[in-house]
Design a protein that fits this description.
Shape: globular
Radius of gyration: 20 Å
Largest sheet: 8 strands, parallel, barrel
Structural class: alpha/beta
Strand order of the largest sheet: 1-2-3-4-5-6-7-9
Number of strands: 9
Distance between the termini: 36 Å
Order of helices and strands: HEHEHEHEHHHHEHEHEHHHEHEH
Helix content: 40-55%
Oligomer: single chain
């Protein structure tokens, strides 16, 4: 891969490239099929409007989030897009055997050559019991502690370059580089760029040390954003992939024509988080349900804190908030995730943000 595949280009008046993070959210009264159809429409909209990349997050055992299988979803989106970069934001490496991930993303690379990203995280993306079921062990700390070793093994599979004498030296991830070196092989040896994701300093330091691009989860760990980005930049060592650090941040943002509607939708999304954090995960509630819900003082405090980091309002207000966040953090790219009960409203939010920055338009964009 090259640095050009990692570094995006700002479009319109945006200060940095804008991208999309999709959790494939499912609202009350909607189905997973509805949510996945929205993802297809959103990926086409993002491509048509000049968003740089489209990532899907891995979550498990959450009724309101239908993104348990990023590789499957990305394969579907690859069939409905032509240019936009597609990737995981991210695959939770401790949940999977490195060889399986190498095979999945080798397959994606074969389906969408030159436009696949492999973003990796070390958290489970779920609760402890579900993580134990995924990993078939209750020793969950081992997975997180072994992350650097798992990462090194995965990269070896992706590059097909285990040293002589290694137990895995005769094992190959297919599709992959081995097909290029086999007799008669014409397969490209290209493989997806690896990104590290994080919400604290661990992956920031590791990404810097390895010279990899870094994605920080500002949308749910805002207090750690600047310290983590500083640590990443201070730790950075040039690599074959990158000569200089490159960091994107995930940011929650929702734009509507009516400021009041944005507040209603954001309240509903916050209620969904309240339920998730208190062991009651469910579908994203309607704004009406959220307005009728009696929040306890502790829940109300959580909602206030949570929504303080959600940029929402009119398109101009959202643009101003995104600009300010980029200036404060120095992020090289902003990856926007929009949460709302209604998929159509999410689509409209990205359209309004694109309009606010004068992003290019295309006849391929869904009509909203």
């Amino acid at each position: 891969m090259t640095a050009d595949e990692i570094r995006g280009r700002a479009e319109g008046t945006a200060p940095v490239p804008l991208s999309v993070l999709d959790l494939v959210t499912v609202g009350a009264g909607r189905t997973a099929t509805d949510a996945l159809r929205t993802s297809v429409e959103l990926s086409r909209l993002a491509e048509a409007r000049g968003f740089h990349r489209y990532w899907v997050a891995e979550h498990h055992s959450m009724p309101g989030v239908a993104s348990s299988s990023p590789a499957v979803i990305l394969a579907h989106l690859a069939a409905h897009t032509e240019r936009i970069r597609l990737g995981s934001g991210g695959v939770m490496l401790p949940n999977h055997a490195p060889l399986v991930i190498a095979e999945q993303f080798g397959t994606l690379e074969a389906l969408a050559p030159g436009r696949v990203d492999l973003g990796l995280g070390r958290a489970p993306g779920t609760d402890g019991a579900t993580a134990a079921a995924l990993r078939r062990t209750d020793r969950l700390n081992e997975g997180a502690d072994d992350f650097p070793e798992q990462l090194a093994e995965l990269v070896r599979f992706l590059d097909d370059d285990f040293p002589d004498g290694h137990p895995y030296g005769r094992i190959h991830a297919v599709p992959g580089p081995v097909q290029a070196t086999s007799p008669g092989g014409v397969q490209s040896a290209h493989r997806p760029p690896v990104w590290l994701l994080g919400s604290s300093g661990f992956s920031a330091r590791l990404a810097g040390t390895l010279g990899l691009p870094f994605a920080f989860a500002h949308h749910f760990s805002a207090q750690n954003t600047i310290p983590a980005l500083d640590l990443y930049r201070q730790s950075f060592r040039p690599s074959a992939e990158l000569a200089e650090p490159y960091a994107l941040i995930g940011v929650s943002a929702l734009a509507t024509e009516d400021e009041r509607e944005a507040r209603r939708q954001v309240l509903a999304a916050a209620l969904n988080m309240v339920r998730l954090r208190t062991g009651r995960p469910g579908l994203v509630p309607t704004p009406e349900e959220a307005e009728a819900y009696e929040f306890s003082p502790m829940e109300r405090e959580f909602v206030t804190s949570w929504n303080a980091n959600v940029i929402h309002g009119t398109p101009d207000e959202v643009r101003s908030g995104l600009d300010d966040l980029q200036k404060r953090t120095g992020a090289d790219e902003l990856m926007i995730t929009s949460h709302a009960h209604d998929g159509g409203l999410r689509l409209r939010s990205y359209q309004l943000i694109a309009d606010a920055y004068g992003l290019p338009s295309s006849t391929g964009a869904p009509q909203l």
